[in-house]
């Protein structure tokens, strides 16, 4: 039997009550058991930490995506919280790092400028399909089933949502040399090719790999993405050197049991730990 590799990153508990536990999942840690991953998942770690075998996720994030995840502690409340996500009532905001470049014309679907003549924010709409046994999702002609709003990222006072590293740099669109097509004013490449910057992503639907597919289709693949636009050779499981720079930054919903407004914010930084 092959020993399950250890994931050397753990989650932070952002909130808990008698019904739910909200965690800030790191990159590389799967939400639930799948394939070779069982104990090295957020779900099993959480069950073992609390000694509560009934804990169940209300939704999931990809193993390579970091950010806010809600778990339900008691079976009688599972349906109420899971329906928030199945019915797309919960509002999610993601942040990512991607090339600072003009958006390309996608092969399928549409792009709508929401504040013309500015390119961003834009609404990306297409049909995304994920077939069983195929690692990548892909776009095809047909009825639209995936919508994402893509904005230029903002720099927060506490650094959350911003990128200020040597690999590229984060800009908020100010400064000399601004490119009005891409919003890349002031972004540095550090001599390593095109610069990168932060983007804010607001999915309106929840198709598999939706944000990764939509960003890649615009010629703006997310930094660290081994699947899009092309499938790369698999990396060793103990290679944590280049995370997918995608974070589920905020999650908002009205608590289906108490009626209280809930808002949770991930502390996972972009651009390295």
Automatic annotation (TrEMBL):
InterPro entries: PsdUridine_synth_cat_dom_sf (IPR020103), PsdUridine_synth_RluA-like_CS (IPR006224), PsdUridine_synth_RsuA/RluA (IPR006145), RluA_PseudoU_synthase (IPR050188). Residues 183-194 have a biased composition (Gly residues). GO terms for molecular function: catalytic activity, acting on RNA; pseudouridine synthase activity; RNA binding. Gene3D superfamilies: Pseudouridine synthase. It catalyses: a uridine in RNA = a pseudouridine in RNA. SUPFAM superfamilies: Pseudouridine synthase. GO terms for biological process: enzyme-directed rRNA pseudouridine synthesis. Residues 20-217 form the Pseudouridine synthase RsuA/RluA-like domain. Residues 174-198 are annotated as: Disordered. PANTHER family: MITOCHONDRIAL RNA PSEUDOURIDINE SYNTHASE, PSEUDOURIDINE SYNTHASE RSUA_RLUA-LIKE DOMAIN-CONTAINING PROTEIN. This is RNA pseudouridylate synthase. It comes from Bifidobacterium avesanii.
């Amino acid at each position: 039997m092959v020993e399950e590799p250890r994931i050397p990153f753990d989650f932070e508990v952002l909130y808990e009550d008698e019904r739910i536990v909200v965690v800030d999942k790191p990159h590389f840690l799967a939400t639930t058991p799948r394939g070779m991953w069982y104990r090295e998942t957020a779900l099993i770690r959480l069950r073992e930490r609390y000694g509560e075998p009934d804990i169940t996720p209300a939704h999931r994030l990809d193993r390579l995506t970091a950010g806010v995840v809600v778990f339900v502690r008691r079976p009688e409340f599972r349906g109420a919280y899971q329906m928030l996500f199945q019915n797309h009532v919960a509002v999610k905001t993601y942040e990512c790092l991607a090339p600072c470049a003009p958006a390309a014309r996608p092969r399928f679907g549409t792009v709508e400028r929401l504040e013309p003549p500015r390119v961003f924010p834009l609404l990306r709409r297409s049909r995304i399909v994920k077939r069983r046994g195929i690692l990548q999702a892909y776009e095809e002609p047909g009825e639209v089933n995936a919508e994402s709003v893509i904005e230029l990222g903002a720099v927060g006072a506490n650094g959350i949502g911003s990128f200020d590293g040597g690999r590229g740099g984060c800009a908020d669109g100010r400064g000399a040399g601004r490119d009005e097509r891409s919003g890349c004013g002031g972004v540095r490449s550090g001599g390593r090719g095109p610069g990168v910057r932060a983007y804010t992503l607001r999915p309106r639907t929840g198709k598999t790999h939706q944000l990764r597919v939509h960003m890649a289709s615009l010629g703006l693949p997310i930094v660290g993405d081994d699947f899009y636009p092309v499938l790369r050779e698999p990396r060793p499981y103990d290679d944590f050197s280049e995370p997918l720079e995608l974070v589920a930054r905020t999650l908002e919903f009205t608590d289906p049991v108490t009626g209280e407004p809930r808002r949770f914010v991930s502390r996972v930084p972009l651009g390295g730990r």
